[in-house]
């Protein structure tokens, strides 16, 4: 019998990551639900997957710390086998702010908090997947944001810039590892109903802004998950370095 594929989804206890974990499990993947501190939410995602006949485990790790990323990959390797798919999704948002009011602490927090984990997790995933390291290939999908295209003026230029870095990472890494059997793609969600907007100081931000979108509604995490799944799957076997914008026409 063919080995079940293994997917690591960072920040999968809530929001887009949780919806993506459920979808991959539905398609037969063994899913690693990574989270930072909300073990209750992560365990709920795992319990729901198992209740529906899927396979998943929750692993706590701050994916912005290399030692924890290394331990995360070691645990996956010993408990689930080598990974086939990495979804870089964990991210943070802070209060809306004019550019001139940003300070060093906040800028550093956002830039490191939204960029480091994508680099670190990709590094360890490549060491597992790459044909140069004896691997069978694989797929990486980065969750960026429509903010990388809009720049998010008067709200979070620091967050938008961190997502711009993810777009550039996608372009460069896709080219660097294409001949090693690894595809790297990216989704750029717009206004999606998750907890993240509360962290930005405005829980109802999607409802306030949705009428400005061509489709005049916010998006659901499940709609983003479908695009992530497609890019990661063999249905997208000739796609690398590509972007799917899920922003209601923005
Ligand atoms: P969310 O609901 O706030 O969930 C964030 C997730 O990331 C949680 O599972 C959290 O774990 C985890 N996390 C944060 N920092 C982490 C770290 N250092 N290590 C491990 N896990 C960490 O977020 P979301 O809205 O689903 O966003 C997911 C991704 O989509 C982010 O990259 C975000 O920038 C992007 N995005 C979101 C929107 C939107 O409108 N929501 C739009 C565009 C892009 P805990 O539960 O343990 O805290």
TrEMBL record:
SUPFAM superfamilies per the UniProt record, alphabetical: NAD(P)-binding Rossmann-fold domains (SSF51735)
Coiled-coil parts of chain: none
PROSITE patterns the record matches: ADH_SHORT
Hydrolase listed as a keyword: no
Domain of life: Bacteria
Keywords: Oxidoreductase
Protein name per Swiss-Prot or TrEMBL: NAD(P)-dependent oxidoreductase
UniProt source species: Pseudoalteromonas phenolica
């Amino acid at each position: 019998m063919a080995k079940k594929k293994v997917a690591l989804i960072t920040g999968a206890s809530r929001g887009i990551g949780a919806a993506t974990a459920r979808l991959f499990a539905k398609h037969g993947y063994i899913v690693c639900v990574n989270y930072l501190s909300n073990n209750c939410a992560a365990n709920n995602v795992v319990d729901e997957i198992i209740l529906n006949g899927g396979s998943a485990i929750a692993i706590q790790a701050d994916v912005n710390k290399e030692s924890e990323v290394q331990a995360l990959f070691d645990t996956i390797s010993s408990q689930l086998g080598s990974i086939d798919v990495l979804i870089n999704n964990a991210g943070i948002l802070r209060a809306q702010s004019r550019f001139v009011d940003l300070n060093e602490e906040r800028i550093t927090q956002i830039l490191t908090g939204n960029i480091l984990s994508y680099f670190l997790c990709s590094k360890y995933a490549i060491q597992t997947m790459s044909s140069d390291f004896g691997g069978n290939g694989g797929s990486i999908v980065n969750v960026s944001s429509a903010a990388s295209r809009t720049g998010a003026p008067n709200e979070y230029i620091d967050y938008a810039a961190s997502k711009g870095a993810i777009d550039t990472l996608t372009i460069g890494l896709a080219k660097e590892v294409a001949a090693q059997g690894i595809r790297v793609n990216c989704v750029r969600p717009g206004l999606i109903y998750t907890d993240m907007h509360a962290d930005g100081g405005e829980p109802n931000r999607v409802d306030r802004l949705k009428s400005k979108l061509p489709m005049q509604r916010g998006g659901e995490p499940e709609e983003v998950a479908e695009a992530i799944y497609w890019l990661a799957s063999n249905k997208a076997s000739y796609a690398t370095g590509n972007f799917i914008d899920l922003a209601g026409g923005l």
